[in-house]
């Protein structure tokens, strides 16, 4: 059986495959990426690159031969709301003829899969983007309780946030307002697999994080088995979408 080959549209210009893909799926699945050249994590930054998403999707199909594609930028796909996120997905699929999804779909699908509706939210974002995320979650029938970000707008800086800082923020938002069914860590540039495991063990609630969920969602969109034991509750048991 041929190795599945899936495509990623990522915010940084370099177009590197995020580390979570190989960590989750090893040699089982091959990933290729195209970069958008996002200048900053803000509405201004998104507007500069959003119109090139479909073009990157077409390039992934024609030049790489991928069989499914995801826009792997959470805020890039939620900043204009749920209807715009859906429109992006439809336009990518229409242009490529392939199953397509987005990282904003991924966090919603992950939360629903784990039966989380009331959610504590930890992000990398500035306040402007946090409010856009709050709106997207509410439009998607979730109840965001405490929501706090690290106020980062630099695209490269998010990848350098230490695990302990993420764990501390998750604990803070979870304890700030009682009643959350689980936790969302939002921003695809954050490196979170270790934090997810630690927070789930410490707080005994499920955690959905943008980048791992993005790979999980893309793999399911391609009709493949998205399980990856030891990588958190989302990967413990799952079937193709």
Biggest sheet strand order reads 2-1-3-4
Number-wise, the strands total: 8
Radius of gyration of CA atoms, rounded to a whole number: 16 Å
- Write the CATH architecture name of the largest domain: 3-Layer(aba) Sandwich
Q: Termini distance?
A: 21 Å
Helix content percent band: 40-55%
Mean pLDDT: 96
- Briefly note the CATH topology name of the largest domain: Rossmann fold
Into which percentage range does the β-strand content fall? 15-25%
Low-confidence stretches: none
Q: Characterize the largest beta sheet: strand count, sense, and whether it forms a barrel.
A: 4 strands, parallel
How many structural domains in the coordinates?
2
Number of helical segments with 4 or more residues: 10
Helices and strands, in N-to-C order?
EHEHHEHHEHEHEHEHEH
């Amino acid at each position: 059986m041929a190795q599945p080959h899936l495509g990623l549209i990522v915010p940084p210009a370099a177009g590197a495959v995020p580390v979570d893909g190989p960590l989750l799926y090893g040699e089982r699945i091959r990933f290729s990426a195209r970069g958008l050249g996002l200048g900053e994590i803000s509405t201004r930054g998104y507007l500069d690159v959003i119109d090139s998403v479909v073009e990157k999707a077409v390039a992934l199909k024609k030049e790489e031969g991928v069989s499914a594609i995801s826009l792997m930028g959470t805020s890039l796909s939620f900043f204009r709301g749920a209807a715009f996120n859906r429109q992006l997905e439809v336009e990518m699929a229409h242009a490529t003829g392939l199953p397509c999804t987005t990282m904003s779909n991924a966090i919603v699908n992950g939360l629903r899969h784990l039966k989380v509706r009331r959610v504590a939210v930890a992000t990398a974002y500035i306040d402007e983007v946090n409010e856009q995320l709050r709106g997207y979650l509410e439009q998607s029938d979730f109840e965001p309780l405490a929501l706090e970000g690290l106020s980062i707008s630099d695209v490269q800086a998010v990848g350098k946030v230490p695990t302990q800082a993420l764990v501390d923020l998750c604990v803070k938002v979870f304890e700030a307002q009682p009643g959350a069914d689980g936790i969302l860590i939002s921003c695809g540039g954050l490196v979170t697999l270790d934090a997810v495991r630690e927070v789930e063990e410490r707080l005994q609630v499920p955690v959905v994080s943008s980048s791992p969920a993005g790979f999980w969602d893309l793999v399911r969109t391609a009709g493949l088995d998205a399980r990856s034991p030891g990588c958190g509750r989302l990967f413990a048991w799952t079937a193709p979408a």
